[in-house]
């Protein structure tokens, strides 16, 4: 990992009808978002699209154009509805075929007599792509341009992300501190807006929750890449909270 | 609810930095997707964007233009980072101000002396919008054009969706049947592709999972709006599975 001066950004593209129908509940977005944030890559946007080539191509091209990286999940299995690799090849305008390196990886897991046409789909890799090893079940993901294509099964996706992370360009990590307000969100909203304005380089988020006794409470999350700015804003937030009328 | 001949489609837009940073794990996408699918509304795409006006405006306009409905969650609270209502007004090119109906709703929950400027933000509603009542904490959502704006807190969002659902135009419900293959995905992939081609009007998804004894297994999900087409495809899927070599 190298640390860049400019923010390093990412988008996430989740591919699959089963997410859009609600049959499968996505568990990858939150995992990838938290992981990338922790290493200094800002996730700027997320999309979920169906297993339709033109939708995938359009989303890949829109998201890769305006982010440092695009991470995709899903659609790289052995069945007819797994069209991610072909769609990504189309988005890049490159050819796609069975990759001998990927075929060799499959043969570490699959007996040669079982390597049928369906399983060979999992070795179809766009021309020019690097492979992303899959320590769980061998069928690899791949990395082409700034697009990293991963499996949809969470355990496999997570293993692939671990392979990729050390090679990513990263920015300065976003620091954050959470302050429990012990106040209702509507009571901190006014002073908080003034504080946010007074602290450029810092963002302050406000998240209501019900506390142990069921009373409305609020978490304030202060974020900055600069430790000094963060500390100053947190100090002001705490002073503001101390000045609120006791409830 | 009225049933239309054409598919009724929806997009979901989740608004909030806390989702993109991974601090908060989204629980709304899967809920809304499953809910809408069950009543005959097809979710075609999902996006998550940050609390930045131009991002919200662009996503609202892109998604409302090509879907019957757009459902948004998040960003309608009392703090400075809650900018969804203003952004939606901007997307529609209409004015926004404190709505007397929404103000009256807030006063059912909040004492008049507590109705400060921050809380009044929650009564800011774009001109021409219908309110969506909030039985949990009163601050309403709203419905403008084909866009339905809901809270991000799951319990409140769910209550709002219950209010809205009876008024939605709905299509024919997508029927689905899940068949446990008791086979590895790579062994069903070939015959399944042929079956999918032979059954227009039906989609067949394939989802690998590890069964009780840890062996790779596959769920096949057959979907169609036509009961007859569904039954015929399911019968063919079962016959195909029965013809596979025993493992």
Query: What's the quaternary structure here?
Result: homodimer
What is the CATH-assigned architecture of the largest domain in chain A? 3-Layer(aba) Sandwich
Supply the CATH class of the largest domain in chain A: Alpha Beta
Global outline of chain A: elongated
Q: Let me know the largest β-sheet of chain A.
A: 6 strands, mixed
Distance between the termini of chain A: 48 Å
Task: Tell me the structural class of chain A.
Answer: alpha/beta
Strands in their spatial order, largest beta sheet of chain A: 3-2-4-9-8-7
Largest interface: A-B, 67 and 67 residues
Which stretches of chain A of 5+ consecutive residues score pLDDT under 50?
none
Helix segment count of chain A? 9
Mean pLDDT of chain A: 94
- If you consult CATH, what is the topology of the largest domain in chain A? Molybdenum Cofactor Biosythetic Enzyme, Chain A
The Cα radius of gyration of chain A reads 22 Å
Helical proportion of chain A, percent range: 25-40%
For CATH, the homologous superfamily of the largest domain in chain A is named as MoaB/Mog-like domain
Total domain modules of chain A: 2
Beta content of chain A: 25-35%
Organism (chains A, B): Ancylobacter koreensis
Pfam families (chains A, B): FLAD1_M, MoCF_biosynth
Domain MoaB/Mog (chains A, B): 11-171
Protein name (chains A, B): Molybdopterin-binding protein
